[in-house]
Amino acid sequence: MTHAYIGIGSNQDNPALQIKKAVNALKAIPNTQYMICSSLYRTPPYGGVEQDDFINAVALLSTELKPLALLDELQGIEQQQGRQRTVRWGPRRIDLDILLFGEHYINNERLTIPHPGLTQRSFVLFPLVEIAPSLVLPNGELLTSLLTTCENNLTRLPTTVA
User: What is the pTM assigned to this prediction?
Assistant: First the structure.
């Protein structure tokens, strides 16, 4: 079993509900055990596209799947929830990203692990630290050390996914 950290985000059609639906779908992925999900965080949009704020979270899975098989499962969940890929960094009903997959480094046309934005994006780092405060990245860097250079522009919401 490999630990996989999944970034979850939404800013359309009741984002908190979309995240809850996605988490429920994560629990049904074959050969995979859902472990935990962070709190929900409200964050300003990333990438310069004018749009509503996002709600973000990070979930931990333990899986027997290979990285691309897990990616296929995540993209299937996105399709089931009506994800439309139109504008890069644009509005979306649901977004599921593999942030880390064990100690793996992957860089191909479909998947890059660790996720390229992992070390700079507060909407990934803060929820990830919440559920894995002692996590060491594959390059040996302590996750919490990244918080010192990352802008905290998040609002932790009282709602939980569970």
Answer: 0.92
